[in-house]
Amino acid sequence: MRSVVSYVKRGGRMTVGQQRAWNELWPSLGRTVGELPEGPVDFDDWFGRRAPVMVEIGSGMGETTSQLAAAAPELNYVAVEVYDPGLGQLMLRAEKLGVKNLRLMHGDAVVLLTSHVEPGSLSGVRLFFPDPWPKKRHHKRRIVQPEFVSLVASRLAPGGTFHMATDWENYAEQMMEVCSAEPLLRNRHVGEPGGWAPRPEWRPITKFENRADVEGRISHDLIFERV
């Protein structure tokens, strides 16, 4: 399929602490998508245990991701991000929290899901506040497109969830339209007003949500389940 990449490559210098995390922690916690051997990743071997695998696409600076992984020790939590300082900061946050169930992937989540994740193998995929590309002429660059949603759905185990959140109204509507049209998915909250999921108490408030609140935008959660 024509790949809509899951990120915008951003530069940025790393702090001393972030560089230390790359030097000391990355060899055991991280892998680079473009350097993976052919075929699916053996997550059981990488984590050293058999557990449900949760993939979060776009972990940013790791504020939310580190807390979510710490709060769900029963999951093998995989964060996918392209921003080097963000991955460094996530490793520092995880180290501070004593998180043991987190691994990091550096690179494009579309490539990871397409080439290195077995169909029907994930317990969930999370996509919180992806780049909204707010200008109408840029909407085609948004990651939530039919091909991407079909890919995610194919990688979920039956009952597995695709959880999205965005503070841009028309992107939320696009997410709802595209996911509702995917035959492998069903909306867990179809009975709620608009089909939106209630905001989960376990999802920490991000800087994007705080900014959206200040700017008068409402955040929406969507949770779809693999049938």
| CATH homologous superfamily (4th level) name | Vaccinia Virus protein VP39
* Element pattern in H and E: HHEHEHEHEHEHEHEHE
Q: Enumerate the spans where pLDDT stays under 50 for 5 or more consecutive residues.
A: 5-10
Tell me the Rg in angstroms. 17 Å
Strands of the widest sheet, in order across it, are: 1-4-3-2-5-6-8-7
Question: Can you tell me the CATH architecture?
Answer: 3-Layer(aba) Sandwich
Number of DSSP helical runs: 9
Instruction: Calculate the terminal CA-CA distance, rounded to whole Å.
Output: 23 Å
How many structural domains?
Answer: 1
Number of strands: 8
CATH class: Alpha Beta
Largest sheet, in brief, is:
8 strands, mixed
Helicity range: 25-40%
What class, by secondary structure content? alpha/beta
Mean residue pLDDT? 94
Approximate strand percentage: 15-25%
CATH topology: Rossmann fold
Q: Assembly state here?
A: single chain
Binding site for substrate: 135, 167, 206-209
Keywords: Methyltransferase, S-adenosyl-L-methionine, Transferase, tRNA processing
Binding site for S-adenosyl-L-methionine: 56, 81, 108, 131
InterPro entries: SAM-dependent_MTases_sf, tRNA_(Gua-N-7)_MeTrfase_Trmb, tRNA_methyltr_TrmB_bact
Description:
With 227 residues, the protein is α/β, with parallel strands linked by helices. The chain has one domain: 3-Layer(aba) Sandwich (Rossmann fold), CATH 3.40.50.150. Helices cover 35% and strands 21% of the residues. It is built from nine helices and eight strands. The chain has helices at 16-24, 26-29, 43-47, 63-71, 84-97, 109-116, 146-155, 169-180, 207-214, and strands at 30-32, 53-57, 76-81, 102-106, 122-128, 156-166, 185-187, 220-226. It has an eight-stranded mixed beta sheet, sandwiched between helices. β2 (53-57), α4 and β3 form a beta-alpha-beta unit. α1 (16-24) crosses α5 and α4 (63-71) runs parallel beside α5 (84-97). InterPro entries: SAM-dependent_MTases_sf, tRNA_(Gua-N-7)_MeTrfase_Trmb, tRNA_methyltr_TrmB_bact.
